[in-house]
């Protein structure tokens, strides 16, 4: 087997006496969609934040593409192809949809210490940004201010911005948060297309989406990996059912 | 975002100001040109503050220090035989850049109210440094024997030539900042204002961009300082008093933050009202304070926001 793209070894993070990430080890193979599920407060977002470099772990190692990245900041990790989306939409609200994306393109193409030429005239930037918007289906919203988008569209924009960084590994923190029905459908089919060409770590509460998309699933409970396996294994695991999938479903096997 | 109306408003300001000397001559009141010169000088200073405060969300409460450093560059330059305006501007910009590079690098380690306080503290250090320089007049400051020369001529001794020189510098500063804020650099700066975390998540480290903007703003402020010294023909530590830094912020709030045009309008109105009100009553600040309260309450985006609501100014969508 080839070396995993992302390897997490004995990661620990505590806030005071509370161990939010408690000896987590995890590996993500290139090309797979690895879902991390777990009840509220299990430490999923804290884990993603450590993977993306927003939070520094207390101990442990993160290897990306064979090299340790534990000490790198977020910007350095993004430049290596490790991008993230945020659970709570984190856009540049006053800027246009296109500007939100083209800033991400700009970050990896050429110097930003250019003081004279209007960036709006930079066709290469806008073109790449439009491609990303096209991919998520927001091309017709390009010139709206980001804050004027609907919630579902903002979630799509989150994805477009992450894609515009040209990632190899995409960390998605609850991309479906707060969406429903049609909005969720759009995002799920988008993720299905993305998983063909990207490695994805997905945190998600929507079990339907998780089991439809994931190649592997890890279950995080109280900061520890309680189980890890294929979606089928996870559904069948009695420990997981008890800890997470909901006791109320006991006795109604639906695999 | 449509920026055109802002550009038009800026042009209107430039044209309107350019008409002041002939109007002053027609009215037989040359003092108008002198006041207008002062208005333009502060417009330059306010523009520079708008770059960091308006576009970069760095609320500096010590920006007057750089205006002061520019003023002292005139006094120091003159002492060593450097009387040319452009040379003095270069000297002032160099001194300001050095001071801004060091203090900015330290200040930018902090956020929010701490940034306000630390920039204030550094400005006070500069203030007391010049107060202690008895060779430069200490507390009292020092009178200039003459205005700066321009390309070896004493053309600036004419109030009208001096006025148009300041106007030219203002136009250049505005043009440069307009380009900068719409270029790659400006967009990164604005993005950092909107959401620094997002900027890191797409691969930027905000610090060097913020520091660069801070240094550029300091250089422009010192250019304003060089002109201010020439306008008053006097240099004193009072130029960098903390209350001066406060006045610059007031100008921005009055005119509208992060629009450049608003900064200029705010400066012109503030200095203009200062002279008008001061002629009526020594308690003019009371009236001015009231005006400011009204603006903040009813038009948080300043004059620019007011125009926008009346359908004259720039629209955002």
Automatic annotation (TrEMBL), chain A:
GO MF: ATP binding; ATP hydrolysis activity
InterPro entries documented for this protein: AAA+_ATPase, ABC_AA/LPS_Transport, ABC_transporter-like_ATP-bd, BCA_ABC_TP_C, P-loop_NTPase
Pfam families membership: ABC_tran, BCA_ABC_TP_C
Every ABC transporter domain range: 6-247
A GO-annotated cellular component: plasma membrane
Alphabetized UniProt keyword annotations: ATP-binding, Nucleotide-binding, Transport
The keyword Lyase is annotated on this UniProt entry: no
Name of the protein in its database record: ABC transporter ATP-binding protein
The species this protein was found in: Pseudooceanicola sediminis
Automatic annotation (TrEMBL), chain B:
Cell location: Cell membrane
Membrane listed as a keyword: yes
Keywords associated with the record: Cell membrane, Membrane, Transmembrane, Transmembrane helix
Molecular-function GO terms, alphabetical: branched-chain amino acid transmembrane transporter activity
Pfam families: BPD_transp_2
Membrane topology listed for this record: Multi-pass membrane protein
GO cellular component, one term: plasma membrane
Chief place of localization: membrane
Ranges that cross the membrane: 35-57, 64-82, 88-106, 113-131, 160-177, 207-228, 248-273, 285-307
Lineage: superkingdom: Bacteria
PANTHER family: ABC TRANSPORTER ATP-BINDING PROTEIN (PTHR30482:SF17), HIGH-AFFINITY BRANCHED-CHAIN AMINO ACID TRANSPORT SYSTEM PERMEASE (PTHR30482)
Name of this protein: Branched-chain amino acid ABC transporter permease
The organism of origin for this protein: Pseudooceanicola sediminis
Taxonomic classification: Bacteria, Pseudomonadati, Pseudomonadota, Alphaproteobacteria, Rhodobacterales
């Amino acid at each position: 087997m080839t070396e995993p793209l992302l390897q997490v070894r004995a990661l620990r993070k505590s806030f005071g006496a509370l161990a939010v990430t408690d000896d987590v080890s995890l590996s993500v193979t290139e090309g797979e969609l690895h879902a991390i599920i777990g009840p509220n407060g299990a430490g999923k977002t804290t884990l993603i934040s450590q993977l993306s470099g927003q939070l520094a772990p207390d101990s442990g190692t993160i290897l990306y593409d064979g090299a340790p990245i534990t000490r790198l900041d977020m910007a350095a990790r993004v430049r290596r192809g490790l991008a993230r989306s945020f659970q709570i939409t984190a856009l540049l609200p006053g800027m246009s949809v296109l500007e939100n994306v083209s800033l991400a393109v700009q970050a990896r193409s050429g110097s930003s210490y250019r003081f004279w030429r209007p960036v709006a005239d930079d066709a290469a930037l806008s073109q790449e940004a439009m491609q990303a918007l096209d991919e998520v289906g927001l091309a017709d919203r390009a010139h709206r201010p980001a804050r004027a988008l609907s919630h579902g569209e903002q979630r799509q924009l989150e994805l477009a911005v992450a894609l515009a960084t040209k990632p190899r590994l995409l960390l998605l923190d609850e991309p479906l948060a707060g969406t429903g029905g049609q909005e969720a459908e759009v995002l799920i089919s988008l993720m299905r297309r993305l998983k063909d060409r990207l490695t994805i770590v997905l945190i998600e509460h929507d079990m339907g989406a998780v089991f439809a998309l994931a190649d592997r699933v890890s279950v995080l409970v109280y900061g520890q990996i309680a189980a890890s396996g294929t979606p089928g294994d996870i559904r069948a695991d009695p420990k997981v059912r008890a800890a997470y999938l909901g006791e109320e479903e006991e006795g109604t096997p639906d695999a | 975002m449509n920026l055109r109306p802002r550009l038009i408003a800026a042009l209107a300001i430039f044209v309107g100001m350019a008409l002041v000397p002939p109007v002053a001559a027609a009215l037989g009141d040359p003092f108008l040109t002198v006041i207008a010169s002062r208005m333009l000088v502060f417009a330059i200073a306010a523009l520079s503050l708008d770059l960091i405060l308006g576009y970069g969300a760095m609320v500096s409460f010590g920006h007057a220090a750089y205006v002061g450093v520019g003023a002292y560059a005139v006094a120091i330059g003159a002492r060593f035989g450097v009387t040319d305006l452009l040379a003095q501007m270069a000297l002032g910009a160099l001194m300001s850049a050095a001071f801004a590079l060091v203090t900015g690098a330290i200040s930018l380690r902090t956020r929010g109210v701490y940034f306000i306080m630390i920039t204030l503290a550094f400005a006070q250090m500069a203030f007391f440094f010049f107060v202690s320089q008895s060779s430069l007049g200490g507390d009292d400051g020092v009178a200039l024997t003459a205005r700066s020369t321009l390309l070896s001529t004493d053309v600036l001794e004419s109030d009208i030539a001096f006025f148009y020189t300041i106007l030219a510098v203002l136009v250049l500063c505005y043009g440069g900042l307009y380009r900068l804020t719409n270029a790659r650099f400006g967009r990164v700066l604005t993005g950092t204002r909107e959401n620094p975390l997002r900027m890191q998540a797409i691969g930027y480290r905000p610090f060097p961009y913020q520091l660069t903007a801070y240094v550029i703003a300091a250089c422009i402020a010192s250019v304003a300082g060089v002109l201010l010294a020439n306008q008053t023909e006097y240099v004193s530590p009072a130029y960098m008093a903390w209350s001066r830094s406060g006045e610059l912020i007031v100008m921005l709030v009055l005119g509208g933050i992060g629009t450049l045009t608003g900064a200029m309008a705010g400066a012109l109105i503030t200095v203009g009202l200062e002279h008008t009100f001061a002629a009526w009553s020594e308690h003019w600040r009371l009236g001015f304070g009231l005006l400011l309260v009204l603006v903040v309450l009813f038009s948080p985006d300043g004059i620019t926001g007011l125009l926008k609501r009346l359908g004259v100014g720039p629209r955002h969508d």
